[in-house]
Amino acid sequence: MVSLKNDRFLRALLRKPVDRTPIWMMRQAGRYLPEYRETRRLAGSFLDLCKNTELACEVTMQPLRRYSMDAAILFSDILTVPDAMGLGLYFEEGEGPRFRKSINNESDVRNLKSIKAEDDLSYVMNAVRAIRKELNGDIPLIGFSGSPWTLATYMVEGGSSKDFAKVKTMAYSQPELMHSLLGILADAVADYLGAQISAGAQAVQIFDTWGGSLSSQGYKDFSLAYMKRIIEQLSVTLEGSSVPVILFTKGGGQWLPFIAETGAHAIGIDWTTDIKNARSQVGDLVALQGNMDPAILFSSPKRIREEVANILEGFGKGTGHVFNLGHGITPGVDPDNVSAFVDAVQELSPKYHL
Ligand code: CP3
User: Fold this and answer.
1) Is residue 2 part of a domain?
2) pLDDT per position as a tens digit, 90-103
3) Which of 155, 208, 298, 337 fits 249 for a cystine, CB–CB 3.0-4.6 Å?
4) Looking at the predicted structure, is the pLDDT value of residue 150 above 70?
5) Domain presence at residue 240
6) How many C-beta atoms surround the C-beta of residue 92 within 10 A?
7) Residue 293: which of 25, 21, 14 has the closest Cα?
8) Which residues are marked as active site?
């Protein structure tokens, strides 16, 4: 095991005994924090923030100064990969991500720039190295990427979508074209995560935010197969230890037995899945990460504590659980309610590890 002052996050992912359930939060560095909003203002735009090593490192550290999290996550975005491939990412205030060019046909796929993460996404690797230095061995750093399917949804739709009409039309009417795009993305993501690991990421998470929009067969063919291909390609060791892979499909609760067979060390689950039931399905194959509804953070510290207690009881005794939200924290949450959340996990979980 990499030498770390606090390694309970990595231990839980590898289902080794821990003293309490580790916790981190998806989007823990983000707009609910006033200091994040201030740094983002200084940077000019979200993308400028991602590309500025010092400021990306600063915002990664901000939640750690407030809360005793058991892991840090690289500050970046999943859409940096299609941006590097030449699609031109930008963010329209209040509208989310957009691409200047989208993928409509075979020639668009052929014209995608083939990338080498170490060179074409060097700003991400610089951020990883700077954050590792700043963390100084206190807690592990998580690297991440989008899943091929989730990246494809943004690339084909040209931005966010409600019904995924364009990307699903391509998947169901021109499956060969979709598979060629997904294959290119899988290889790029494997290279990208590999580069993050070489730069110092101690665990990686694949965000499959839109896998849950597919049918069961569609999910297996267009999303799961390519995440499996990434995991197979990843050289999952660093300094002689395993680098755990977390696979998070939002809305993937009904496919857990299949996800557990990909070689991932842990499965992220959203709040619509019952964690007790999830554990009984995956057994000792993988760890679980999740799964409090982020909206609970809009309620009271008392209600938050009750929900934490329910989830801990649902998972039950023993290792193999990393506490998290079931999706990213929502802007507008009171930062004090996050303290109540983190405290509750730290205070209520030790009895499950006796
Ligand atoms: O978890 C973390 O703290 C690490 C940082 C992180 C961000 N994006 C920062 C961010 C991570 C892991 C992501 C992943 C990401 N990005 C996903 C997958 C996870 C998920 O939420 O399902 C997706 C789908 C994206 C694409 C993307 N980037 C969207 C949909 C948005 C939100 C647009 C909006 O205005 O709400 C972003 C922007 C983004 N990425 C922000 C942050 C902190 C907000 C940017 C800002 O306005 O400051």
Assistant:
1) no
2) 998 778 999 999 99
3) 208
4) yes
5) yes
6) 9
7) 25
8) 27, 31, 40, 77, 154
Decide: pTM greater than 0.90.
Answer: yes
The Cα–Cα gap between 145 and 142 comes to: 10
Q: What is the DSSP string of 148-214?
A: HHHHHHHHHHSB--SS-HHHHHHHHH-HHHHHHHHHHHHHHHHHHHHHHHHHT-SEEEEEETTGGGS
What is the structure's pLDDT at 237?
Answer: 60
Cβ contact 156:195 at 8 Å: no
- Using most ligand atoms within 8 A of CB, pick from 77, 325, 338 the residue to mutate for ligand 1: 77
How far is residue 68 from each of residues 103, 194, 258, measured CA to CA in Å?
42, 28, 34
Residue 19's pLDDT is 98
How many structural domains compose the chain?
A: 1
Please report, for the domain that includes residue 97, its CATH number.
Answer: 3.20.20.210
345 occurs within a structural domain? yes
Which residue segment(s) compose the domain that 187 sits in?
8-353
Going by pLDDT thresholds of 50, 70 and 90, the confidence category of residue 241 is low
| Most ligand 1 atoms within 8 A of CB, residue of 23, 26, 27 to mutate | 27
Give a yes or no: residue 215 inside a domain.
yes
Beta strand ranges found along 273-312 (DSSP E):
287-292
